[in-house]
């Protein structure tokens, strides 16, 4: 069954005819408000809480795989609220079985047609992988598992000792994770059918801006792209 057909009634207007492009516009607009210090804090009022409680279900319109870094909360930097984003966070966005399973649930069961892999500048997880790459010493235990996952993504990035090498590795890791997920069982069929789009993006802590790293042409918002109001009956 198609994602749009599985979507809950209260988000049907969003998924029907707009899907991933429309959702990306909403995320872009929310990030613009965040970085210009004009957030609207949508879907965070008492009515939204009551609506979610009464519905006894969740119907987010996008999935986000972000880093566990405390400086990069997706709901804040996209200026969204309760029930809007299905968010999974892991150090360096490394997609182990738990992360992948959670994302499959978000796409398959919650019908989110856009999955954003959100890397960020100054990522300490990638920094640890860079150190391991340069020294040949990988940490033991759980940290070693995470570092090794990132090493797969950055080992071919040219290292000329420049200050922007870390940024280049962050980008490479983000794109690599997005590509991994496109081939993940439970996701690849939806990617191939066009029901799901997986896009890598990079958040700059300094500039507060989300930059999309995919090769799709920029999608410019139309006249109906304003963020919906906070009334519980509205679409996300």
Written account of the structure:
Its EC number is 4.2.1.1. Belongs to the beta-class carbonic anhydrase family. This is carbonic anhydrase. Keywords: Lyase, Zinc. It catalyses: hydrogencarbonate + H(+) = CO2 + H2O. The longest helix has 18 residues. Helix 7 crosses helix 8 and helix 8 crosses helix 9. The protein has one domain: 3-Layer(aba) Sandwich (Beta-carbonic Anhydrase, Chain A), CATH 3.40.1050. The protein has a five-stranded mixed β-sheet, with helices on both faces. The chain contains ten helices and five strands. The chain starts with a helix and ends in a 24-residue tail after the last strand. By secondary structure, it is of the alpha/beta class. Helices cover 43% and strands 12% of the residues. The radius of gyration is 18 Å and the shape is globular.
Largest sheet: 5 strands, mixed
Distance between the termini: 22 Å
Query: What is the annotated CATH architecture?
Result: 3-Layer(aba) Sandwich
Spatial strand order of the main sheet:
2-1-3-4-5
CATH homologous superfamily placement: Carbonic anhydrase
Shape: globular
* Alpha-carbon Rg, integer: 18 Å
Q: Kindly report the oligomeric state of this protein.
A: single chain
Number of helices: 10
Low-confidence stretches: 1-18, 216-236
Helix content: 40-55%
How are helices and strands ordered from N to C?
HHHHEHEHEHHHHEE
Give the C-level CATH assignment: Alpha Beta
Mean pLDDT: 84
- How many domains is the backbone divided into? 1
CATH topology: Beta-carbonic Anhydrase, Chain A
Strand content: 5-15%
Q: Which class best fits the helix and strand makeup?
A: alpha/beta
